[in-house]
């Protein structure tokens, strides 16, 4: 397989690229290395992948000549984007429209221009659902995001579906539910909680900590991408990829304390606007269409993430 991975230096993109290279794929990766979080982390991911055979381009999708780059590519895994639910209010929304909506449309146009368009596997998000009237959420439920981030991911998802239906391009959108594991983004809950535990600092919890998440382990998400790359699907399909672990933030802290072997103090801060109270997705469609199901439990996955960050800390000291 010849694959293009956008957002290759990020958390999920780099984990996916590593697996693709292990499987013998030829992988081109693009990442503009934005400064949303420490660029050194992204550079390290990219360098690590380059050593494994990645052809890396530190470029912005909006400025790159995409048509020649896409020639001969079988599958585009489109993970590039502006993440962060809580930071998407205010003037920063421009970044979300550019990097999530416009960049996706630009990529789709370049895909459409190919004589033989590659398949597009798009990284969508559970944030498209918002606070749903019932759980688990299913793909045909009316999406009603509660953050501008969710709106931008949904707009891009609609574009992906539209280009699939209109032009027959093999597109599929995977709605990921709060992905975690080694190399997790530093702004996300578990990497912050683990960092606090290792540094003997209090964990900051937004709201009362009773919000529920369907946390999904990164290797399971990677597996869903691989299956989506070759499954027989109708153009424009959308499916949930959720870990099946509906737990509260408080529960995850208790789990972390067990793994850490000591209590970790918690400091509560006001709930952040845009934070959904609950996510929880049905995996029936992914199971039927891809033969996919999550395999890593929250206890196991959190232990692996903890071990990864603890080891990195030891390496630094
Ligand atoms: C995550 C990703 O950040 C999004 O990019 C992704 O699209 C989204 O999942 C998704 O599934 O659609 P989120 O669920 O907010 O968003 O993930 P976390 O940052 O891990 O937060 C989980 C929960 O912990 C949230 O309720 C958040 O408010 C809470 N949290 C987070 C804290 O209480 N304290 C923190 O320091 C960080």
Report on this model:
The chain is α/β, with parallel strands linked by helices and 317 residues long. The chain has a domain at 2-180 and 217-243 and 281-295: NAD(P)-binding Rossmann-like Domain (Rossmann fold), CATH 3.40.50.720. Helices cover 41% and strands 17% of the residues. The protein contains 10 helices and 13 strands. The chain has helices at residues 11-22, 39-51, 66-70, 93-112, 148-167, 189-198, 218-230, 249-260, 284-290, 298-316, and strands spanning 2-6, 26-30, 55-57, 75-78, 119-125, 171-176, 179-180, 203-206, 212-214, 216-217, 237-241, 246-248, 266-269. The strands form 4 sheets. A 7-stranded parallel sheet has the order 3-2-1-4-5-6-11, sandwiched between helices. Strand 5 (119-125), helix 5 (148-167) and strand 6 (171-176) form a beta-alpha-beta unit. Helix 1 (11-22) packs across helix 7 (218-230) and helix 4 runs parallel beside helix 5. The longest helix is centred in the N-terminal third of the chain and has 20 residues, at 93-112. It is globular. It starts with a strand and ends with a helix. The mean pLDDT is 97. The structure holds uridine-5'-diphosphate-glucuronic acid. The site of uridine-5'-diphosphate-glucuronic acid (UGA) has 19 residues, from helix 6 and strand 8.
- Name the hetero compounds present: uridine-5'-diphosphate-glucuronic acid
**DSSP E strands, number:** 13
Shape: globular
The average pLDDT score comes to 97
> Which strand order spans the largest sheet, edge to edge or round the barrel?
3-2-1-4-5-6-11
Q: Tell me what portion of residues adopts beta-strand conformation.
A: 15-25%
CATH superfamily of the domain at 2-180 and 217-243 and 281-295: NAD(P)-binding Rossmann-like Domain
Order of helices and strands: EHEHEHEHEHEEHEEEHEEHEHH
The main pleated sheet reads as: 7 strands, parallel
The residue ranges in which pLDDT falls below 50 over 5 or more consecutive positions are none
Radius of gyration: 19 Å
What is the quaternary state of this protein? Answer: single chain
The helix-and-strand class reads alpha/beta
Instruction: Kindly identify the CATH topology of the domain at 2-180 and 217-243 and 281-295.
Output: Rossmann fold
Assign the CATH architecture of the domain at 2-180 and 217-243 and 281-295. 3-Layer(aba) Sandwich
| Distance between the amino and carboxyl termini | 40 Å
Reading off the top of the CATH hierarchy, the class of the domain at 2-180 and 217-243 and 281-295 is best stated as Alpha Beta
Instruction: Work out the helix count.
Output: 10
Share of residues in helices? 40-55%
